[in-house]
Amino acid sequence: MKFLQTYSVIDRSLRILWVGGDWDEFALENQGPAAVANRVLSTRLDDHIVGDDTRTAVLALLETVFETQKEVKLDYRCDSPNKLRRVQLTVRPMKEDRVLMVHDLRDVQSFVKPFGNWHYRHDATSAKCSFCNSVRHDGGQWIAPEALENHPTAVRYVVCEACQAHIDEAIAAVRENRKPLRVLVNGFGPPG
Ligand SMILES: [Zn+2]
User: How far is the centre of ligand 1, averaged over its atoms, from the C-alpha of 160 (Å)?
Assistant: First the structure.
């Protein structure tokens, strides 16, 4: 497995000051040419996050680090149509009111049966959680990607209840100066 890490430095106004690591490889594979380093520098982080819930969650993590000057870690999934990918996000305080965001690819597995490509549509009836990648069709049950028969072709990005609880707990633990409780999301635990 190729070791993959991306880094970005964000200031208090959410401007992206610097990106590094395998940023361009990761951007091209996931978001296409619009996300490569020289196109995102000096733009705002929140302009690159799709879905209101997802944007709110990421900004809450950053705000927690800006305010407490303590590190926050969060595991999430960033699957592609043929690969299950577990990623750890670390948001770390830096001097001069900046934070460092590190996305660290921890595990990659090929799906037994690859999905077709999906795309974002704001009014899609199927929702996909940006953090565990589970899918819910028309208000039904959340289903993990590996348990899906077929992946919907259009999804809107949201945060499922389990991931929201996981994020809230990660934030609360940092603010209360304690270890996070073990909240499991879709079969993978909190940062080790
Ligand atoms: Zn989720």
Answer: 4
CA–CA separation, 99 vs 88, rounded Å? 16
Q: How remote is the CA of residue 181 from the centroid of ligand 1, in Å?
A: 17
| pLDDT at residue number 128 | 96
Distance 144 CA to ligand 1 centre (A): 9
Phi first, then psi, for residue 18 (nearest 5°) are: -160, 140
Q: Which residues pair with 158 in a beta bridge?
A: 129
The count of residues in the chain is: 192
Using CA atoms, how far apart are residues 99 and 89, in angstroms rounded to an integer? 12
Rounded CA separation 133/150 (Å): 14
Q: What per-residue confidence (pLDDT) applies to 36? A: 81
Q: Residues 134-172: pLDDT tens digits?
A: 999 998 999 999 899 899 999 999 999 999 999 999 999
pLDDT surpasses 60 at 190: no
Multiple choice CATH, 5-175, 3.40.50.300, 3.30.450.20, 3.30.420.40, 3.30.465.10: 3.30.450.20
CB 145 within 8 A of CB 133: yes
The per-residue pLDDT for 182 is 65
In the chain, what are the domain boundaries? 5-175
